[in-house]
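Z., the sequence and structure:
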Amino acid sequence: MNHPSRPLFGLPVFSRSICWALPLSIALISCQGSLVSAQDAKKAAETAAAKPQAETKPEAESKPEAEVKQEAKQETKITESEKPTPAKQESKTKQGEKPAEKPASDAGNPSADPKKMESDAKASDGKETDKPKPDDKPKPDDKPKPDDKPKTEDKPAKAEKPAPPSEAPELPSEAPELVAQWESKGVWLSPPTDGPAAIDFGLVGEFVGELKTDAKDTKRLGVQIRALGNGQFEARAYHGGLPGQDGFSEDGMMVLIGRRSGQTLVLSGGPWAMFAGEKQCKIINAEGATLAELPREQRISPTLGAKAPEGAMVLFDGTGTDAFINGQMTPHGLLRQGADINFLLSDFDLHLEFKIPHMPKYLDQARGNSGLYLQSRYECQVLDSFGADRVFNGLGSLYRHKAADVNMALPPLAWQTYDVHFTAARYGADGKKLRDAHVTTWVNGVKVQDNQRLPGPTGHGQPESLTLLPTKFQDHNDPVRFRNVWVIDRGLTGGIEFPVKAK
């Protein structure tokens, strides 16, 4: 039995009536709310039934809920896109014009085609629409009038991208009649492509590798083979490698001669025989043992293609001969021999690239002859000296004055380089010479003349005087070609490293 003063669930005894009455009150309130909601629903239904039939939208009621949502999205997008911007609305209002009325959307138009509405709704979501069937084509009366079309802001036309510059067409080669004329004389301006001449030219070149010795050791050997015409050849073998390479020596050089048999060249003249082909040169001793198989070596000058540094003058780049007197350019953009530089130079650094024709039947000074006549007085010789002796009138020599320190000639028809560092003679006020001219030259990147003194004109050079004369590219009646010619006038620009190596 509970004591009257003992609390029940933490409440005094007199509060038990409240605890039992509270749930009953909540239930009554809920019932009253339910009744009110039912009455409101009944009243809303009666009001809807009393509305005219014309205000109903059978299209929306008959369509699935998803399609109704799609149409609502479309209506919203069309309405927003047709709203005039505040700036335009303000402008039209200031002019006394009324803003254009928005066209009625298909969602609120009872006469709109449901299939068309469905297609438009899909298009607004970025989905591909089905092609309309013939029966689905709108009738002429259903087409929107011009005034009903929504006004859209004119977009500025996109600027067309400029067409990429067309690549320069390849320049034609030498005129066919000129090529035929030279070939009839046994001179090729480009490698022969057929017949015995092509086979002979394919055997010309450099070979380098290791040679076995009697002591069962090896030593480096370099071989240069040149053609002499009619299947005849000459070769030089150098200990230590090819001219210009580390370890090269002219001591003990051997000269071999031979003839071609089919595709193979057989050379002899030393303690062994040499069988040369296009890819390698094989050396065999008297017992038939193979002493070496030397692969072909194709060297390129480190200054070939060197670009003119800042401050230099480009004299010839294949686009014209304005920097020359008597300058002539071939159809494929090369400078012919016989041009004179149209600048009177005193102290200068000159870079040029040259190509000597293939003239197997010609020897010595008749074989690819040209030259650089510095100030028309001092000649730096240009000649096909490949595989020949180092002489005082060969490539790199100061003509008939001093031979090159190294015969750095490469095979004919290969592009080669000449770099010249020249300092003119100095004279006093009385016209007497105080100091001789000096020159340093590099052929194919190797120094062949080192600050050589020039006491007077060389060869057929003009007499020395105070007067500056042009530098000439000699014409010796052989088709020697030049390209990439540039000069540094040290009287205008100094401190430039020379020669410049190609990158």
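Residues 1-42, 47-69, 71-172 have pLDDT under 50 and may be disordered. The two ends are 113 Å apart (CA to CA).

Let me know what you think.
H.
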